From TrEMBL:
EC number(s) given by UniProt: 5.4.2.11
Organism the protein comes from: Lacticaseibacillus hegangensis
A Pfam family reported for this protein in Swiss-Prot or TrEMBL: His_Phos_1
Transmembrane segments: none
Pathways involved: Carbohydrate degradation; glycolysis; pyruvate from D-glyceraldehyde 3-phosphate: step 3/5
Positions annotated to bind substrate: 8-15, 21-22, 60, 87-90, 98, 114-115, 183-184
SUPFAM superfamilies per UniProt: Phosphoglycerate mutase-like (SSF53254)
Name of the protein in its database record: 2,3-bisphosphoglycerate-dependent phosphoglycerate mutase
Amino acid sequence: MAKLVLIRHGQSEWNLSNQFTGWVDVDLSEKGTEEAKEAGRRIKKAGLEFDQAYTSVLTRAIKTLHYALEESDQLWIPETKTWRLNERHYGALQGQNKAEAAKKWGDEQVHIWRRSYDTLPPLLSADDEGSAAQDRRYANLDPRIIPGGENLKVTLERVIPFWEDHIAPDLLDGKNVIIAAHGNSLRALTKYIENISDEDIINLEMTTGEPVVYTFNDKLEVTDKVKLDK
């Protein structure tokens, strides 16, 4: 009965300032750091022990993982970082204040960009100074797969290969896994795990710093799901 714990990173500095973040590498806020540590304390209280950890290549998720593992006395476990668990890329919206964007394009349009399953945001060109193509952490990727913007559908398409190649095999081997990632990469993963429809996934929210625990049987079917409250 393998277990999988998902944690959306604690509040980031741009969550606090209400900016579109995406692949921009911002840090945790003071509140976000405490949320990550509290997640670790809840994990320890629940007696959860892990064999493998996964996270993105973005600081806010990496630090969340480390704080949670440190608080649960498991900082030593094997850890893998991958761009496939990055937040959804918000394209040319990245860095913009969400309220200001709503004034510019209208509440309805911004809501569609944020929550729609298959509508892309305005794209960022590869030669823009804010493009991930300019970031050394993606230097080993084929430039053709570095996004200029993503919706949840595209995010799901890049998350699932990592699930199939790494996470699912771990769970089938009976390993307990923890993933610290982002609201949309975890929404994509949740959609796949729970077979949530394109329409219903729009309403799913991932709370910052709240561990969600799945239990699987030997056929990788979910037998239990709980949120670790205080």
